[in-house]
Every structure is written in C-alpha cells, then in structure tokens.
Amino acid sequence: MGGVLDGVRVLDFGRYIAGPYCATLLAEFGAEVIRVEKRDGSEDRFVAPVGEDGEGALFLQVNRNKKCITLDPMKAEGQEVMRRLVATADVVVANLPPQTLRAMKLDYESLKAVKPDIILTTATAFGGPGPWSDRVGFDGVGQVMSGSVYMTGAGDPPYRAAVNWVDFGTALHCAFGTLAALIERGKSGRGQVVEGALLATALSFTNATLIEQAVINVNRVPTGNLGQTAAPADIYRTNDGWVLCQVTGHPLFKRWARLMGEEEQWLNDPRFADDISRGNNGPIISERMARWCAERTTQEAVDTLGRAMIPTGPVLSPQQALDHPHIRAAGFMQDVDYPGLPKPAPVARAAVRLSETPGDIATRPPTLGEHTDLVLTKLGYDEAAIAALRQGGII
C-alpha cells in the first residue's frame, strides 16, 4: 500500500472505536494492520447493521485497509499463534481492561518477553491510577463525567452528544501517541506503553470550561444552543430551515454589525464592548440575528454570511450532509464496496491531508477471518497445521 508508515506492522485487538480507529489511521498512512477477532466475530462488527451478514456501519467506517484473522487466544494453540504474531509486530493496539490484557497475555510484560521493542497502545475508560481504574465504560461515561453533558441542551434533561466524540478523540490521541513512540523507538530502540483513556480525552476537550470554573467560580448553567462567551452564537430558524452563526472576536463582531446595517448601535454600546460582555448579553444580540435569519432562506442566509466572512453553516440532516455540494466536491468521503451491501458505503477519509505523502483508502474492510490462512502461512504454518487449528476451534 505504501505510505509514511510502510513497513510498520500493527496487531489490532481493538474493540468498537478507540482501538480500531487508532489502527485505521495508522493503516491509512501505510501500516500493515492485522485485525484479530473472535471466531464468531467481535461485537463491534455488528453495530448498526447494513450488510446482508450483519456487518455494521461502524465496522465499515473504522476497519478499512486491514487484514482480518480469527483466533481464540485463551487456548494453548492460540497463544502460540499469538506469540508468533507478536514476534513479527511493531505495535499492538488493544483498548481492553487491564485484567483482560493480562488474561490474554497482551499486557506489556508478556509482549515484551516476546518482542523487547514492542509498542503497546491501549485505552481504558477511566485511566489510572485511581479507584475506578479497573471499571469499564463507553463514550457516554466520558461525556457525562467531564461537564460536557451537564452544559448541553437546556438542562432538564441533560443531553449527551449523538456522536461518539470521546471515543474518536481517544483514538486520535492514541494514534498520535503511537507515532511518537515509533519515533522514539527509532532513536533509542526502546518500546513503551501508549495509554489513552476516555475520561482523560473528555476532560481535555472540556478543559477550558473546567479552568474557567476553577479560577473564577462562574457556575455556568446550560443555555441550549445560545453561546455564553460571545455573541451572536446560536442556531437560528430561517424561513425554510435552520442555520448556525458564530461570532467570536471584535473584528467578526464589527463585520456582523456592518451586515446588520447598525454599526453605531452595536459598536458604541458598552454592553457589547467585548466577547464576554456580548456573551452575557447574548439574548439581546440573538434576538436581532433571529429576525434577520427569519427573513431569508437557509441558502440566502449562509451565502450572505459567508460572503461577509462570518462563520456559518446550515443544519443538515444525514442525507443532506451526503448530498451537500461542498462535502461532495472536497472529497472527504470515498465510496467503498463491501460484500453484501446494496450500494457502496461512503467512508470518511482520515481528516488530515499530507501534501507529499497522503493517506489512502486502498482496500475495503475485511470479511470475518478473510486473511487467516494468508497470515498464518506467512508465520510458518502449513496447510495441514492450519486445518488442524481450524478443526480444534482455535481459528
């Protein structure tokens, strides 16, 4: 496949998002990634099913460019396969609880005994040390414990985000950490553990809110879509939909006031002198912006705001997002075929572009166990040995 990580072999024992998407990012930039699944398929293969065999949308998103083998690592013969695999690997990705890593002999000490310079990239729900270190959790746990959910919506009830930003953020941190570890290994020859945590990611993304609370004890409460530290910052109804407008910084506010045709009114009033003052008086500014938007179609509003260099965007349904002319023209997604799908899946490319060594979606996600024989053959297993492993329920 080629790429900046060409020659790096990654074993992906990940589940759901944080581990698998970390490995996907490495694969998109050239690493050889071998996904290791249970014999009947890992649970994350079947989330939001879209394929005739139950493969899910999430699986299609975060497993392109990988090979797949099936393996039972809890049996002695499976452990031998694992040992041979680890001996050939540079990185092991496994977002599993510490006790599970130890049981599977995927903990760092066990891996290092096989490959001294191995890099173990792992992620847990809560990180450690701490009283919750061994507990398990999903994306929503990070959202609710970081202050994010408390500040979302109108407060009764609080709302978590519909997308798994904590999981994907953890995957990004883990991929970054893995690259740093590979660079260090290139200098010193040493492997190490790269550890992410869902709660750590969520706290890092909401950190400014937490800093503000700690330093000035502001005790903010949720205000729906209305911004609190600048204005106008809200989602406004047009005469055929909704549009978001966000104004932060005085140069943007001056442009907004000019667009309203009311520079003197807004720029000379001390209530709107700076961002925080405008945030404190946000309902006044938003009322004016709401009237402006109500007089226009969504397209008219975003075009006019865009020409004025004011950050804006329409509120799109999933289908409208797929159909949006800029999203289509920019090539953010690539149609990928998969056996049993009624039509190709629009898979989002890695959201970063390198001018000289770009990433690539080169192969579709693997079917369950698609590459088991290929990978084991390269590890030295002959046809009879592979058949025996299959007969014994190891693969």
Automatic annotation (TrEMBL):
One of its GO terms (molecular function) is transferase activity. It comes from the Bacteria. It holds the Pfam family CoA_transf_3. The keyword Transferase applies. InterPro entries: CoA-transferase_III, CoA-Trfase_fam_III, CoA-Trfase_III_dom3_sf, CoA-Trfase_III_dom_1_sf. Keywords: Transferase. PANTHER family: L-CARNITINE COA-TRANSFERASE, SUCCINYL-COA--D-CITRAMALATE COA-TRANSFERASE. This is CoA transferase. It comes from Bradyrhizobium zhanjiangense. The lineage of its organism: Bacteria, Pseudomonadati, Pseudomonadota, Alphaproteobacteria, Hyphomicrobiales.
